[in-house]
From TrEMBL:
InterPro entries: MmgE/PrpD_sf (IPR036148), MmgE/PrpD_sf_1 (IPR042183), MmgE/PrpD_sf_2 (IPR042188), MmgE_PrpD (IPR005656), MmgE_PrpD_C (IPR045337), MmgE_PrpD_N (IPR045336). This is MmgE/PrpD family protein. It holds the Pfam family MmgE_PrpD_N. One of its GO terms (molecular function) is lyase activity. Residues 284-451 form the MmgE/PrpD C-terminal domain. It comes from Verticiella sediminum. Residues 21-257 form the MmgE/PrpD N-terminal domain. Belongs to the PrpD family. Gene3D superfamilies: 2-methylcitrate dehydratase PrpD (1.10.4100.10).
Length: 465
């Protein structure tokens, strides 16, 4: 049976379907027609993704170590590099472990509507590109396709895929993004693309309840692995439904008929969503909803004479969003999803780093003493929409003084981008435990001209070592 053979429930080729229209839009994404802004953002995405992937290998609770050990034990033909591990494995295994590492610290980028577009997709694209020695401009094209796919699917899902509830988005929209990226990377035709998307529909899934555990990061890893598998199987002639976004498909099955499916194609790439509204690059390795309170806390720390030991109690005015209301996080990893904990550590330390979310920091005496004195006040008058929300941190000091900081702007978010210097500071900080300055700078030099290089072998050799 070939990829052009229809299943009984498939539509004839000449019958228009939503999935067919979506595939047509996807196939229209070509490097030679991409706007310069999209190419530039794709380079930023690649560098940031590599940085957080490398950093994830040394996640304090051992998530990276376990993932690498598991992958080594699984074996596999040496086709693609595992970040920091010193070995290659199969494309599928490399996509899995690198995807998991890329989300391990919750430092990977995000955008609007909320989703993690890089960790489920870039590792799949890199694994296939490394093995097949594909040129950098094809990687750029694949990144853009993967991002646009996720953006359109998040728009179409709308309120049916609420933040922090039900399905965790990297395992859902991220899976389709990975499949789309691989499909464009290896040049699947229309019918093969339909088959790859149909297969993805039977493999998508993740549960947001696992937030705060190692399993959450594996959602990105599985999405990346599925992206490789679906693309390669479709290339070889695997069949699936040709209308995964049609009746009884993705929207009916996962979202109970919710969402607005037409938004999959309405306005597709006009403009590309990675250009407008753009991509948010995280400054801190924690859930993005904690970043406004962190920024507010760090601003308060700059007040003359302010010391963490002088704090009596803390009030945080915040939107009515339960996802990050964790007054006593179970671990340092769980602390990434706790507004209370992230604010306390920012006030005590004057910084937020990877080490802010170790178990040692979480259960240190000063944190243990201050956490019970934090009150999270959920204010229904504060917009719940991430793009419009704000937070207010009020610190009452032991000498009776009160310090207040409202934070609506969000560093790294759309409209408040990180500068090149800030992005490079993040990359060098993320990679410092694995790469010396010379090798890290070489990765920067190569990725900043990604579309001009013949293949990514040198990049991945450095990342692997």
């Amino acid at each position: 049976m070939t990829a052009t053979t229809l299943n009984a429930n498939d539509k004839p080729k000449n019958e228009k379907t939503l999935t067919g229209a979506f595939a047509d839009c996807l196939l229209d994404i070509r490097y030679d027609t991409l706007p310069a802004a999209a190419i530039e953002v794709a380079r930023h995405v690649a560098l940031d993704g590599l940085g957080v992937m490398i950093a994830g290998a040394s996640e304090p609770l051992g998530l990276g170590r376990i993932s690498i050990e598991y992958t080594r034990e699984m074996g596999g033909n040496p086709q693609a590099s595992v970040a920091t591990a010193g070995f290659k494995t199969s494309m599928s295994n490399a996509a899995y472990v690198n995807g998991t590492l890329a989300h391990a610290l919750d430092w990977d980028n995000t955008w609007y509507p909320l989703n993690h577009p890089t960790s489920p997709t870039l590792p799949a694209i890199l694994a296939v590109a490394e093995h097949r020695k594909l040129p950098g401009h094809r990687i750029i094209e694949a990144i853009v396709a993967a991002f646009e796919t996720q953006g359109r699917l998040r728009l179409a899902a709308g309120a049916a895929m609420k933040n922090g509830e039900g399905f965790h988005k990297p395992g859902m929209t991220g899976t389709f993004g990975a499949v789309a990226g691989v499909a464009r990377l290896i040049g699947l035709d229309r019918q093969q693309t339909l088959m790859a998307l149909g297969l993805a529909g039977s493999r998508a899934g993740s549960v947001a309840l696992n937030t705060g555990t190692m399993t959450k990061s594996s959602h990105s890893g599985h999405a990346a692995r599925i992206g490789v598998d679906c693309g390669l199987l479709a290339e070889k002639g695997w069949t699936a439904t040709a209308d995964i976004f049609g009746p009884k498909g993705f929207f009916d099955t996962f979202l109970h008929g919710g969402g607005t499916p037409a938004l999959l194609v309405e306005g597709f790439a006009a403009p590309l969503r990675m250009v407008d509204p753009g991509v948010g690059f995280k400054k801190y390795p924690s859930n993005y909803f904690t970043h406004r309170p962190i920024d507010a806390a760090l601003a308060l720390r700059k007040a003359p004479g302010f010391r963490g030991s002088d704090i009596d109690r803390i009030d945080i005015d915040f939107p009515a969003f339960d996802y990050v209301d964790r007054p006593q996080p179970r671990t340092g990893l769980d602390g990434k999803f706790s507004v209370q904990y992230a604010t306390v550590v920012a006030l005590l330390d004057g910084e937020i780093t990877i080490d802010s979310f170790t178990n040692e920091r979480r259960f240190a005496d000063d944190v243990q003493a201050l956490l019970p004195r934090v009150t999270l006040r959920k204010d229904t008058s504060i917009p719940g929409d991430f793009d419009q929300t704000w937070a207010v941190v009020t610190v009452r000091l032991k000498d009776g003084r009160t310090c207040v900081q409202k934070m609506q702007e969000l560093s790294g978010w759309i409209g408040y981008p990180l500068t090149r210097e800030q992005r490079l500071e993040k990359f060098f900080g993320a990679t410092r435990r694995a790469l010396d300055q010379t090798r890290a700078q070489r990765v920067v030099d190569l990725v900043e001209k990604l579309d001009a290089i013949d293949d990514i072998d040198e990049v991945m050799t450095i990342v692997r070592a």
